[in-house]
């Protein structure tokens, strides 16, 4: 008897998508309560439609229902502004699976823009996150911020003026970041402590640094690997660094195209680098002291090939950079390595072949050990590793990834 | 912590005497059907958890308890109760939250004693253990404190409070929405109570500890002779290190633990976290942004003003302050304790 009841319940549940509703929300009245109630009362399969308008929000929004779409009428028409925000660490927090956020803008949050934590199948499509005052250390850290998540798609979106990274994916797996425009952030796009990421067709310009692939110690998920960075345009990333001291990106030299730091199996190809005044591509070790025995501060198995390099490296902002540029005829070659292949942890010295493959001119700062002052190394032309490093397979997102085949469709205001 | 607010306790007791007393006969039973209902009652009174309209006289099997160390909520006074249905009991567990059976409920009143001694009730939060997990529901009191009504979207209420020194505070009190409840009450993404851990109930608050009170009322079984214990952070007879760690546990540890909402930070502030980088010593920030305050590490031993942890505890600025929710005021007494703790830490 109980069995048949359970079966009936299961059938009802499986039928529920057919009953998916659209909950319409407008900016009239209490904008916060309007949106937040819709996000609370939405059920699996529902769409929360935020009609065109400016929503003044005093507090952070949150969504904790699986398989919900939050859809605005376009990032220029549906604008969520958090200028007067007095609580919460982000504009919109998502803690449920299968969520799509599309067609809206999030402006001037006190903390991060849109954060998704511990979720599966999260998609952001055609969204703008912006601090409208431009670069400022008081701006929020991250624009689009999935963390500890799996199956992430961030596409066709724009992030402007984060005090840390515009698109930041941390401690996650199976990631696609494509077709986005990131500008005037400290870091344009950052993939950190993550595995299996494809970053392509993005435009990163006028950040302090364009694209970063990092691995940091003392985090639950470490050992980032298998990232492909391709077909991106990474240009003129010369905005002065406005990050708060203490954050790792505060050390980012102005004028950086891309940095690979302490990560493994990173392939950078078919990109266009131009006008990045410090350096086009840096491959370096993590320099701060650490005690985490499971952490490896060296970049390993890195391939940088078939990129197109315009001008760059002619006005390096890191210590010793200007002398370096002068020594190499006025500009640092496209590839800059620090050369470290050993590190120390728990009183033990560890060493390993770092294997870096590249097909453009490069130099090494010639340090031996991660954390060693880079000014103390012997500068020399760098030599590519003479062997093959297999490229990671393309990232495949699941068939039910939300918004995969869904070009942003605008809902008529009268709907 | 009501015992530490004798005025509030006295007034609550007085209010109970004055309130409408139920007609003779057995004490009215709690409305279990209302607790288990999929659609929560709009009026808090419908649960029957209290005998009086002021919600100070608990019904049968509803027991008042205190915590050794409590979460700071802008200096608000709180009263906590737990209900366990007939025929069921809480099983003692040494680590983590007690094993509270399905059908149980936890009530937390928030309010301030006014200058004239009466109480301004703000909200009552209810956690119910339903068959498919815990549910959190915020009830907001009306201006005259006659009724508490469900506000799933939360609310912002102007509250006249006062701090520990009696200085009046004009508070923009934020009643959390049901999602924000989960912002703290979350273990691996599932809603969970925070306070009722054995170690935080075993204090000598009323001359007897709260575990004994629960056991005596028939609500708790399996209590050992020597239960886990975490001190009251305000108890000056306890070493500063233990007081600071107790404060961090109840105010930060519910998010900052490996299964909590701040797991990604790698900063773990629960009572059981080992000292070292995971409690922030020498640990750089990860996603702090301007919350770093220009400081390099969470805790720089001997240097409170170089410690991000203290910067964020002392801040009242959204996006910087910690905890992110449920606080608009600086907790001066706790900030002083944490400052002393870091200052005394050996480098």
Estimated helix fraction of chain A: under 10%
Oligomeric state of the chains?
heterodimer
List the helices and strands of chain B in order: HHEEEEEEEEEHEEHHEHHH
Mean pLDDT of chain B: 88
In terms of per-residue confidence, which ranges of chain A show pLDDT below 50 for 5 or more consecutive residues?
Answer: 1-16, 408-415
Distance between the termini of chain B: 35 Å
Radius of gyration of chain B: 20 Å
Distance between the termini of chain A: 44 Å
Given helix and strand content, the structural type of chain A is: mainly beta
Query: What value does the Rg of chain A take, in angstroms?
Result: 23 Å
Largest interface: A-B, 54 and 45 residues
Residues in β-strands, percent of chain A: 35-45%
Question: How many helices of chain B does DSSP assign?
Answer: 8
**How many DSSP H or I helices of chain A?**
3
Can you list the strand order of the major beta sheet of chain B? 1-2-4-5-6-7
- Mean pLDDT figure of chain A: 92
Beta percentage of chain B is 15-25%
Question: Main sheet of chain A, how many strands, which sense, barrel?
Answer: 20 strands, parallel
Let me know the number of strands of chain A: 34
Structural class, from helix and strand content of chain B?
A: alpha+beta
Overview of the structural elements:
The complex is a heterodimer of chains A (about 425) and B (about 350). Chain A contains three helices and 34 strands. By secondary structure, chain A is mainly β. Chain A has a 20-stranded parallel β-sheet that branches. Chain A has a twelve-stranded mixed β-sheet with strand order 4-7-9-11-14-17-20-23-26-29-33-34. In chain A, strands 30-31 form a two-stranded antiparallel ribbon. The longest helix of chain A is centred in the N-terminal third of the chain and has 14 residues, at about 1-15. The relative contact order of chain A is 0.09. Residues about 1-5 and about 10-25 of chain B have low confidence and may be disordered. Chain B starts with 5 loop residues before the first helix and ends with a helix. Chain B has helices at about 5-20, 30-35, 180-185, 200, 210-215, 240-250, 310-315, 330-345, and strands at about 60-65, 75-85, 90, 105-115, 120-130, 135-140, 150, 155-160, 170-175, 185, 190, 220. In chain B, helix 6 packs across helix 8 (about 330-345). In chain B, strand 8 (about 155-160) and strand 9 form a beta hairpin. Chains A and B meet through helix 2 of A and helix 3 of B.
